[in-house]
Amino acid sequence: MIATRTLLSVLAAFATSVAVAGCASELDEPTASTEDALCTTACTSGTLDGDALLTRVDRGSALRSSWAPSTSALPASYALGAQSLREDARQKFMALVDAARGHGVNLACLSGYRSFHTQCALFRSYAERDGCEAANTYSANAGHSEHQLGTVCDLTLAGGGSSFIAAGGTADLWLRAHAHEYGFACSYPNTDRRDNDGYIHEPWHYRYIGVRAAAELKAREAELAGGLRLAVPVFIASLSASEREALELSDEPDDSSAPPSRASDAGASDADGGAPATPDCSTVPFEGRCTGTVLEWCASGAYRRVDCAGRTDGRVACGEDPSPYIGKNCIAP
User: Fold this and answer.
1) Could you tell me the residue range of the domain that residue 31 belongs to?
2) With left for phi above 0 and alpha for psi between -120 and 50, is residue 76 left, alpha or beta?
3) Which residues have CB under 8 Å from 90's CB, separation 6+?
4) Is 256 contained in some domain?
5) 230 lies in a domain?
6) Is residue 166 part of a domain?
7) Do 25 and 97 belong together in one domain?
8) Which of 97, 174, 260, 262 lies in disulfide reach of 219, CB 3.0 to 4.6 Å?
C-alpha cells in the first residue's frame, strides 16, 4: 500500500539492520487489535499465521511478528526491483502478467512481500511525516498489512517509472475484467474508504486469494448496487469458517462454480456451434468485442464465443456491460 513515487527508495532504506532492530525491540506481548490501537507507531505482534490463502488480515486481525511465508523472487521482467511472492501466488502472477501483455498491458510488480519489521519501519515513517491518523488511511501497521502474506503485489506499468497504475486507466480496466481469472482481487477497490476497511482506493493493490475464491468474490460483487465493488478484507470477513474451507480446497473452480466472467456468468454457453475458435487471443481486445449479436472474448488465455441471440433470459443483444464487469457482454436490448 501507499501511493508514492518513492516507495522503492523508502523500502530500501528500511531494509537496514538499524531499522529492524528499532522495531524488534517493541515486540512485546500480543494485544487486541482495534482501529484505535492501530494508530500508534509501536509495532505489536498479532496472533495469526498466514498460511491459508484466505487468512483474515485487516484492521481487526493481525499476523504474528515471527510468521513469514516461504517466498521466491520474481524474474526481473515481472518486477521493478527485487520483489518476491509465495510460490502459488508467484506462478499465477506471472500468468496474469503474460496474459495482460498479450493485450498490450505491460504490468510489473512494484512492491511484493514485506516482512513485519519492514512494515513496522515503513508505517512509522509515514506517521512521523503525516501524523498517525493520516498515515492509517493509506498504510497498515505491522501485522495488519496484506503484504506480509507474500500474496500481494502493488502494480505498476513496466517501463513507466515507479508510479502505481491509475484508476480508470487501461491497466485498471484490464485487471477489473480479468484478474479474477488468475485468482487475484483488488483489496481496496472503492473510492469511499468506509467500503475498503478504512483505506483509500488502491487500484494497484492486488491480492492472490485463489481462483475459486476470486470467482466467488466476483459473483457476490455482481449483486451489489450502485457500482460498489467488494473489498478483499470485507469479503473474507463475511465468510463463514465452512465457506473459507470450501473456497480453499482447490485453487481452480470446478464446473459447478465457474468464474463469473462475461457471458459465462450470465448463463451463456461457451460456443454457439458457429465459426471455429480463434487460436490467437492477441487478436481479441481485452474488453471483448461484438459482431452483431455474437460476443467474443478471452478468459485465462482461451478464446470464447457465444451468440447472445440464442439466450432465453432476455439478454439477447451484445453490448457494453455495466459495472462491475468491464467490456462487452450479453445484455438486454
Assistant:
1) 7-247
2) alpha
3) 71, 72, 74, 84
4) no
5) yes
6) yes
7) yes
8) 260
Q: What is the pLDDT of residue 256?
A: 38
Read off the pLDDT of residues 222-272 as tens digits, 9 standing for 90 and up.
888 888 999 999 999 999 999 999 998 766 654 433 333 444 444 444 444
* Number of structural domains found in the chain: 2
pLDDT for 146 equals 98
Whole-angstrom CA distances from 240 to 47, 54, 118 are: 19, 11, 32
User: Does any domain span residue 118?
Assistant: yes
Higher pLDDT, residue 31 or 7: 7
The percent of residues in the chain predicted with pLDDT above 90, rounded, is 58
Beta bridge partners of 208: 184
Whole-number pLDDT of residue 280: 65
Does one domain contain both 44 and 92? Answer: yes
